[in-house]
Specification:
Blueprint (H helix, E strand, L loop, with lengths): L1 E7 L2 E6 L9 E10 L2 H7 L14 E9 L11 E4 L2 E2 L5 H4 L10 E2 L11 E5 L3 E3 L6 H4 L2 H13 L7 E5 L3 H12 L3 E5 L3 H9 L4 E3 L2 H7 L5 E4 L6 H8 L5 E5 L10 H6 L3 E5 L6 H10 L8 E6 L3 H6 L8 E5 L2
Parallel strand pairs: 10-11, 10-13, 11-12, 13-14, 14-15, 16-17
Antiparallel strand pairs: 1-2, 3-4, 3-8, 3-17, 4-5, 5-9, 6-7
The structure holds zinc ion (2 copies).
Amino acid sequence: MQAALLVEPGKIEIREVPIPSPREDEVLVRVREAGICGTDYALYRGELNVSYPLIPGHEAVGEIAAMGKEVKGLHIGERVVIQPNFPCTACPVCLSGRGNICPRKVRLGLDVNGVFAQYVCVPAPYVWPLPEGLSVSEAALAEPLSVALHAFRKSQPVPDEKVLVYGTGVIGLFLIRLAAIAGAKVGAVDIAEQRLAVAKELGADAIYRSAAEVEKNAGSFSIFFDASGVADAFSNIVNIAAPGGRIVLTGLPHKEFPLLTSMIVRKELTIQGSMIYTDEFPAALDLLKQGNMKIERLITETCPLKELARALEGFSSPERIKTLIRIP
Ligand SMILES: [Zn+2]
Ligand SMILES: [Zn+2]
């Protein structure tokens, strides 16, 4: 099969490699489209500790090409989206229903070969059949939408509540859309003008281009989602949050930063981390099927596998939101 291999940081090679064979409890997925995400970019830049060569990628849609003999309830040719994190299912964290933070979870495209290839093996419980009428490209957004939904559920706003979202990448934009659908008053913070324009289309009532601009205007925001990955966004949020404010952190900052502990105490802020997803995939597929997430504004480019390296090079350009890779 054709696969994109990361042979060392910054170096992708398209090679012929053997098609993997599924274990008894796995399915073999023929990949059709795969999204590029921040994790792939960090991996490409050598910021993550993995062994090379590695096939990167974890957001993918395709159809089942083969199944291990223990697999039930799925069939060959069925279109599926992949949930790309596989918890151990046996540790105390998993047994409490929080496999997303399992210390032993296996991550597709990081711990094992990923989806920028014609075929990939996935444990059967981690593929979800596509609802009828949902296109492959739409379903490719199910993974990032599940991430956003998991964060959103940590601090769901009531109608007219004021919500501020830092960062207008895919996760931030989905959070804006979810909050707008819930009837909240949504502000969006970013430096990229093009993405702020999309934030408005998705339902942001106010946009802010800098921390200073937010500070002048944002006294009454009570819920904050940080999807920016920017080191000082969190301290900015702690500074401007109204007393009793709730803060949800999703996405990992590029570097750590000091906490303003006294302000967290004085304002009695609630701070909640949010890591990927637990049981959000079916709800995400449902939302996509309803057609109200405006994903046509989020997919900014679809390109062939052989252009993966170029697409990764352009990852942080301000007009880019979600790039899909078409697998030959
Ligand atoms: Zn991702
Ligand atoms: Zn576990």
